[in-house]
């Protein structure tokens, strides 16, 4: 139903509407029903525990279309966020969505991580202020491309920046002279900042 409701809207419009009406886009909502995959979940969660002890890992999940890969990832993300206090985000790139905006998987990951670090029971005020300062002052081009205001609602984002005395998001003209390599480097700096505060899974 999420895909059918897109209609003529852009993906950005759809995400913004879900944040405004429901608080979170569907990829950050708890799964309503999940059965099985106990052994896979146990193996992935053991990697989480190892990561918290300073041993990062890469996990490959493969399978035919419709076998539950995305649902499995959603379930382990719930576990990571809830029990292990880990930042966890999913980024997707599906032909079912048509032709989304450039860097779409990165935008999904960025906005999910931004929400987790600035909202809810796991948010921390000092991290919120430092993260916003990092984005708007040190990584303005990344901020202009990823649009963190769409992750939590433009009004709320504006209130936060005004309260902290920070500049607003630069316009798209800021991206004219920046290369893809620069964007990826800024994205890595964003991830590195979050990793300094909490383990990270993407």
What this model shows, in words?
By secondary structure, this protein is mostly helical. It has helices at residues 11-22, 38-52, 69-83, 104-118, 125-138, 140-146, 149-152, 154-164, 180-195, and strands at residues 87-88, 200-201. Strands 1-2 form a two-stranded parallel sheet. α2 packs across α3 (69-83). Mean pLDDT is 75; it is low at 1-8 and 14-26.
Indicate the structural class: mainly alpha
The value of Rg in angstroms is: 17 Å
Count of distinct strands: 2
**Number of helical elements:** 9
Instruction: Give the SSE string.
Output: HHHEHHHHHHE
Could you report the average pLDDT, rounded to the nearest whole number? Answer: 75
Mind summarizing the main beta sheet? 2 strands, parallel
CA-based shape:
globular
Low-confidence stretches: 1-8, 14-26
Strand coverage percent: under 5%
Which features would summarize this protein structure in a list?
2% strand; two-stranded parallel sheet; single chain; globular; mainly alpha; 9 helices
Nutshell version of this structure?
This protein is an all-alpha fold and 202 residues long. It contains 9 helices and 2 strands.
Question: How are the SSEs ordered, and which strands pair?
Answer:
Blueprint: H1 11-22, H2 38-52, H3 69-83, E1 87-88, H4 104-118, H5 125-138, H6 140-146, H7 149-152, H8 154-164, H9 180-195, E2 200-201
Parallel strand pairs: 1-2
Helix pairs in contact: 2-3
